[in-house]
Amino acid sequence: MISKWMRAGLAALALMSAPAWAQEDPATGLWRTVDDQTGKPKALIRISESGETLSGKVEKLFRSPDQEPNPVCDKCENGRRDQPVLGMTILTGMKKGEGREYSGGEMLDPANGKIYKSRMTLSEDGKKLEVRGYIGMPMLGRTQVWERVK
Asked: How far apart are CA 10 and CA 30, in angstroms?
């Protein structure tokens, strides 16, 4: 039988370690993407954690006056066709690897409707996220650098 002192000690130990359970993954948060051609902000992506994977959803689009303010993914497939890009999940299944590496996920490019394998690397200071989309092998792809907003 456990004494009341042992129960109190176990309860205190559980409370002290609770913050470790509640810590968010360092890659979660709001990230700004930048257009490769213009260098201007393109979108804000919210990365969140669900279980052991990360996903990213378009939270805001930066549009010029001559662009459609609420674009749809007209080249997408599998239920995403003609769905609004704003609010769309474009990054799925990212799993934490060694160090600041993430892999095993997929990324959708709403501009062309294609889905790419993906991996990510978080910078040492946590302010930049290298996101690489590729077909087949990682060397056959493209990397974007996302900047942390908050």
From this structure: 37
29 within 8 A of 43, measured Cβ to Cβ: no
Q: Tell me the residue ranges of DSSP E strands in 8-127.
A: 29-34, 41-50, 53-61, 89-96, 101-109, 114-122
pLDDT-derived band at 48 (thresholds 50, 70, 90) equals: very high
* Cα distance between residue 93 and residue 49, in whole Å: 10
pTM comes to: 0.82
pLDDT of 130-140, one tens digit each? 999 999 888 88
d(CA 26, CA 23): 9
Q: Is 16 helix (H, G, I), strand (E, B) or coil?
A: helix
Look-up: residue for tokens 């007209």? 74
